[in-house]
Amino acid sequence: MKTTAFASLALLAALASSGCTSSARYMERGEKFLAAGKYEDASLNFRKAIQKDPKSGEAYHQLGLSEIKQKNFVSAYQTLLHAAQLLPGDHDTQVLLANVCIELYSADPHRPKALYDQVVQLVNAIGNKDPGGYDTLRLRGYLAVIDHKLKDGIAYFERANQVRPWQPEVVARLMGDLIQDQQLVEAEKLGEATIQQGKADATVYDLLFSAYGNAHDMEKAESVLKRKVANNPKHVEYGLQLAQYYLRVQKTSDAAAIIKGLLQHPSDFPQIYLQAANLYARAGNAEEAKRLYEEGIRHEPKNAAAYQKRMVVLLLEQGKKEEAARLVDAILRQAPTDSEGLQTRAMLLLDTRKPENIDQALAQFQTLSKQAPRDASLRFNLAKAYLAKGELPEARKELSEVLRLDPSKLEAHLLLAEVAYKLRQPSEILSQITPVLVAQPAHPRARFLRAVALMGLGNAADARNELNRLIRDQPKYVDAQIELGLFDLAQKKNQDAEAVFRKFYDPGRTNFEALEGLATVLTLRGQREEAFHVVDQEAKKAPPTSALRLLLAKTAAQAGKEDVALEQLRPVVQEDPGALDADVLLAELYARKGNFGQARTVLEKARNAAPKDVRPYVLLAVLEGRAGETPQAMAYYRRAVALRPDDASLLNDVAFYFAENGGDLDEALQLARRAVEKLNGEGYASDTLAWVYLKKNMTEPALQILTTLVKKYPDAALYRYHLGAALAAKGDRERARAELRAALLKKPAKQDEAKIRELLARLG
Predict the structure, then answer these.
(1) How many Å apart are CA 667 and CA 689, to the nearest integer?
(2) What is the CB neighbour count within 10 angstroms for residue 343?
(3) For residue 727, what is the domain's CATH number?
(4) Is residue 489 part of a domain?
């Protein structure tokens, strides 16, 4: 028994010894990788060491250090917390943890108090043991700057530099703070002394370069870059930085000389041809960039795809899309699953705007996104494809995911604002455009969308001012000028609107939006023949595009020229079978001629071609309503709402239809409330809500809303009619008659006029 017991103890000891040895072996490997700069490999080995010995504080410490080197600060923070628990009071661990806390605190715009308090606690603990030590002084310097005590921070960093001179982390920070404090001479002295000591890192050179540049001392600025290159001959990026500077100041021969020297040592500088070509591409020298890309392929045939991809970008920047597409096809023939190539081809397909190509691009982006679901840029492109397809809810969903993956991606906010613009949601436009304008206050499209949103929210004065400022800053921004004309239209300033549209309408060289706006003005004025004539004359001079044919068809239809409209629509439908605008107008023309069967056939085809587009369902609902098929009309309206649950105007229209035609009033009330909420109480939405209340015999809330609307919009005949109806329902016949008579004086719509007179007759 004793022998067995001793044998078991020996076995346990051997196993324990084996575990410790294994942990030590992983630690040794990790430290070697860390020293060699292979930080991912280092992290992997330190993690394996922790698996073997979970109580190894040193393993956690080293893992934290390797994570810092990879700038994985959140992971480093968690790791170093474990290290600090296992190595209580260890100076190096506390310093590393304090560094990480400062990094995370500075990077977070919310400035978390918990992190700040943790830094203070750590710095105090370090300072209690070593009050005049390098790390204590350095960390107190960071804290002082965080507390907006710049001069105190400078004093701490200066003392830290005295204790341990020429440390890059202190010198660079001290130089930056001296420059911020306008102590430019002191910053220059420190930087020059650091360079002379041979202790300067890239940041010191760059700070000096910026300081001299800001002081317009370009001779000294150039000298700094030249010394940076001379003192660091193995850093190709420094040579390229100097070459880039020379290109910027038009010293092209000096730039060429540097690049030529680098190209003579391709074995020392891998991918130098690619880097040099990229430099010329950024500088706008496409010819030299292309030459270097091609030369790079000859020197590095195995890396040809990398050069070809950059050439694709260059061609796209030059607008040579067909040549770029051929090169992408060549890349994909060699590597059919190349993600970048597939993405680029999808973007080129999307750019054609042809329905069949958009479908292909969308399918490609969907496949790629499934393969890389955390790729924010890829999902952004998927959102653009959904937007091109007209699938707005899907686009919005993808863009929201993009912002979850990358909250700093302003393009996603901008595109979400564009989606809201299409959905007529002014509040959402403002919400999404605000981060863009905070970061880029002069962004033209963001300012344009803000003006549109303000107009949509009823703030016409601010909207007009915003547009006028934008036009003053961007005189050639035609979209803003046209939108100003559309604002005038909305405010019934038809003469002002016409002046804008005529300014930008140049027969034969059409600004299409200006032509469309002019046609709209003339139509609203009742000059439908003139509107048709203007567009018809343009169609005879300009190339017969589908958009121009469709506009001619619309104006012809409005002028009662159904046969002309049909003639113009046929080639549009033939060229683009999925052109929904054409299908919708075609169906409307058939319905106008009494051919309801043909109209339904066209709309059914459109619905099948674009099952997620709301327009065929809405027009089918209108057709069924005209035919007296109210239940079927309501079913189509419900389908439309299911497709566009956030389209406030659609919600409002459907709610009103249900209320007027014996639909489910509870359903109508829910739709109307959602519309009011999304439109921030816009007049017509509030009127619909009041009308639904009235249909449900909820007279008091209806009266409250309508009374407010009539005070705000005294010339709106519809609101006075509805208020009169509400007063009649309450039994106040005298006031009801007064409101109804006032409504008649405000020129109501014909169908409303008939209802008003009928109600007046009943009231006596």
Answers:
(1) 12
(2) 20
(3) 1.25.40.10
(4) no
As given in the structure block, the two tokens for residue 102 are 């400062």
- Give me 315's structure tokens: 């061609």
Does residue 724 sit within a domain?
yes
Q: Where are the alpha helices (DSSP H) in 576-716?
A: 580-592, 596-609, 615-626, 630-643, 648-660, 665-678, 683-695, 699-712
Average pLDDT across each block of 10 residues of the chain; the chain has 764 residues. List them in order. 40 42 85 92 92 93 93 92 93 94 87 92 94 95 94 96 94 93 93 90 92 90 94 91 93 93 84 91 90 90 87 86 88 88 87 82 91 91 89 89 90 92 84 90 90 82 84 77 70 69 64 73 78 81 75 84 84 70 82 82 81 84 86 91 85 91 92 85 85 92 91 88 91 91 87 89 85
Alpha carbon distance 413, 403 (integer Å): 8
CB 529 within 8 A of CB 499: no
Alpha helices in 644-682 (DSSP H): 648-660, 665-678
Dihedral Cα 744, 750, 754, 760, nearest 10 deg: -10
In a domain, 728, yes or no: yes
Half-sphere exposure (Cβ direction) of 609: Cα atoms closer than 13 Å: 20
What is the CB neighbour count within 10 angstroms for residue 297? 19
- The answer to whether residue 757 sits within a structural domain is yes
Q: Could you give the number of structural domains in the chain?
A: 1
Q: Is 680 left (phi over 0), alpha (psi -120 to 50) or beta?
A: left
* Residues 587/626, Cβ–Cβ less than 8 Å: no
Q: If we measure between CA atoms, which residue out of 500, 560, 562, 506 comes closest to residue 534? A: 506
Maximum pairwise Cα distance, the chain = 118
